[in-house]
TrEMBL record:
Keyword Cytoplasm: no
Database matches in InterPro entries: AhpC/TSA (IPR000866), Thioredoxin-like_sf (IPR036249), Thioredoxin_CS (IPR017937), Thioredoxin_domain (IPR013766), Thioredoxin_ResA/DsbE_sf (IPR050553)
Signal peptide from the UniProt entry: 1-29
Transmembrane segments: none
Organism: Micromonospora kangleipakensis
Protein name: Thiol-disulfide isomerase/thioredoxin
Length: 201
């Protein structure tokens, strides 16, 4: 066998071995990487960034609660047992109506209160302060004159009557937006309606 033939056979054998090794390495190697599009689909989406907020825009100013005047710094219970806080009425004109269940004058004014109080509930609240009587009689008075739609405070102990120095019924006490008492005394139905309408305006 010539030397040239021997070299040729060795070269052929080397090529064959290399081919076999290449096939083996493909068979046991790692799986091919997934396409880029598949990786992108599996990755969580990046957050979308919107347009930048314009500079110089003033921030929203939170509402400032109204200052509570001394005249409205009291709490009580209504005739049905609900807690009442006068401080929640700060910033509005308020009418306190001091009445007694046996009072004929109070009964004549009750119709006007029942008529106008719901109309001005959000602008000029009218709050009844019942005293000088029994709770059952007070509740019957509220039912008879349809006053349940407005707060009616149970002041049998007379705490609010003494606080505002009320000495007789029926007495209307009007507090303006700044917490000042601008009227204390008697008002007939017409005068009460006129004053409340003016305060609401």
């Amino acid at each position: 066998m010539s030397r040239r033939t021997t070299v040729a056979r060795r070269a052929t054998a080397a090529v064959a071995v290399a081919a076999l090794l290449g096939v083996a390495s493909c068979a046991v190697g790692p799986e091919p990487a997934p396409p880029v599009s598949a990786v992108a689909a599996a990755s969580p989406a990046a957050p979308t960034i919107g347009p930048a907020a314009p500079t110089g825009t003033p921030a929203a100013t939170p509402a400032v609660p109204a200052r509570v005047p001394e005249t409205l710094k009291f709490t009580a219970k209504t005739l049905d047992g609900t807690r009442f806080s006068a401080a929640e009425l700060a910033g509005k004109p308020v009418v306190l109506w001091f009445w007694a269940p046996w009072c004929a004058t109070c009964a004549s004014q009750a119709w006007t209160v029942a008529e106008i109080a719901p109309k001005y509930r959000d602008t000029v609240p009218i709050v009844g302060v019942a005293g000088l009587g029994e709770q059952q009689a007070m509740k019957e008075f509220v039912t008879e004159f349809d006053l349940a739609g407005t707060p009616q405070l149970d002041d049998r102990a007379g705490a609010l009557w003494r606080r505002f120095e009320v000495v007789e019924q029926s007495t209307f006490l009007i507090i303006d937006r700044d917490g000042r008492v601008v009227h204390q005394g008697f008002l007939d139905g017409e005068s009460l309606s006129r004053r409340v309408a003016a305060l609401a305006g």
